[in-house]
Amino acid sequence: MRVGVDLGGTKIEAIALADSGEIVARERVATPSGYDAGVDAIVEIVKAVERTSGERGTVGVGIPGAVTPSTGLVKNANSVWLIGKPLSRDLEARLGRPVRLENDANCFAISEASDGAGAGADVVFGVILGTGVGGGIVVGGRCLDGVNFIAGEWGHNPMPWMTPDEFPGPKCYCGKRGCIEMFLSGPGFERDYALATGEAATSRVLISRAQSGDGAAVAALERYHDRLARALASVINVLDPDIIVLGGGMSNLPSLADSVLPLLPNYVFSDSVLTRIARNKHGDSSGVRGAAWLWPTPVPSAS
Hints:
Number of strands: 12
Strand order of the largest sheet: 3-2-1-4-7
CATH architecture of the largest domain: 2-Layer Sandwich
CATH topology of the largest domain: Nucleotidyltransferase, domain 5
CATH superfamily of the largest domain: ATPase, nucleotide binding domain
């Protein structure tokens, strides 16, 4: 059996995955604040799904960052309390077994390329549009980490083709300005609306208003579509994937893929754009499923 954990900005989810690929147990808890509380929560949620399933499994964890191989410390995490922490070592000590960590967007891409919206495609770019913005690349069924373990981190490139009113862009937690994440994350979408109108509103409220024809909300959604098209065009110009699979909370925006696809020719360096854009197949479960599949072959259970 495999246990997968998805450490998100607002929730931690864990599943127990049978060898057949069937989810036999699932738990969700709110993500606590602070490193020690986060480690405690991961340990407890792993134990919870193992109690439900009645088995001990391998453990894979998707995190909103990466691990520096030479030190084992987390870097580039938008949950900044993880940065510089030996999460893998601490979890292994508490759980009494090896633990594999992987970037959450890579986990998402692995899941969707295996048996999701990207199944059968040679080159899959998996996109996370949520509390943060990330990406994962799967080529020929293999996830690309890169020599610096940052492959697919398009969210911390600058927004392409910035307009004068966008430049230099909001300041990002990474220390730079104008990162794609600051425009295309859920908080970035809400920030854009607030800057334009002087009114704070949640993404859910803004979508409802846009569907009702509210002009300011419609304009915010159109800006989001154009920015996403620009950002994805820069990926296509470098990677030229067969398919881009959209994930994260913002991927639930109505008709997002259909709205962005016709905008791509404005920015892609080609006379045609054959890249498919699709919403994920496995929904919120895709990242946690990919975390479970970080162990291709289960190890024997402890006696």
